Amino acid sequence: MPSKHYVNDINLQIAMTEYNEKMSPNARVYTQNGRNIGRVSKVYDNEHGNGEQVYAVVSEQEYDKDPKEVSEVTVLFRGSTGFGNYKIDWTRILTSGTTPIGLPDQTRSSLSQSEQITNTDVLNDWLKADAGMAYNILNPSKINVTAQLKDASKAFNDILKKYPNAKIKTYGHSLGSMKVQYALANMPEEDTHRIIGGWAY
């Protein structure tokens, strides 16, 4: 559970559940106030090396149903992993002469696998996605959609196909809010009637 308490806005609380470290298939998802949102039914986590993190959550009552019978799905788009989570791998730096922002080298690392994954998340989010979007804002004549936004959109469209009869709620915070907006703007037009709402913070 996050240590910070957010404004008493249930939609914001749902959006912030995307930062839960235990977002794996079958995991139960709770807000900071203990409200059960459902269970994680599908995880898209850095599928193509671009850093997207998207989670499909289905209510406890419908979790074991055939996907065609599920009536509602909550889709969470995770925001950036904070720079404060980046761990400097001094062993690798001292033995290979690389810089602290180098991608993890598993053969010479003093970091755990979890720490290496977190470092990759930080670099994907801030250097590839956020910096790429900042470049687009500063150079509007050269707008290119970042690979992370494209992958998040693909994940969202995959969720729409997996649950063809479900109504959809989408949530995102920070970088996740940009993923929500891009995914909704790029979904098949014939599925737009299925969207209950998109909450982007």
Description of the molecule:
The chain is α/β, with parallel strands linked by helices and about 200 residues long. It has two domains: about 120 residues, no CATH class; about 60 residues, no CATH class. The protein is built from five helices and six strands, in the order H-E-E-E-E-H-H-H-E-H-E. Strands 1-2-3-4-5-6 form a six-stranded mixed beta sheet, sandwiched between helices. The radius of gyration is 18 Å and the shape is globular.
**Global morphology:** globular
Helix coverage percent of residues?
25-40%
Order of helices and strands: HEEEEHHHEHE
- Rg value: 18 Å
Profile the largest sheet: 6 strands, mixed
List the helices and strands and how they pair.
Elements: H1 10-16, E1 28-30, E2 36-45, E3 53-58, E4 72-77, H2 90-96, H3 113-138, H4 147-162, E5 167-172, H5 175-185, E6 195-200
Parallel strand pairs: 4-5, 5-6
Antiparallel strand pairs: 1-2, 2-3, 3-4
Brief description of this entry?
The protein contains 5 helices and 6 strands, in the order H-E-E-E-E-H-H-H-E-H-E. The chain has 201 residues and is an alpha/beta fold.
What attributes characterize this protein structure?
201 residues, alpha/beta, 2 domains, six-stranded mixed β-sheet, 5 helices, 33% helix
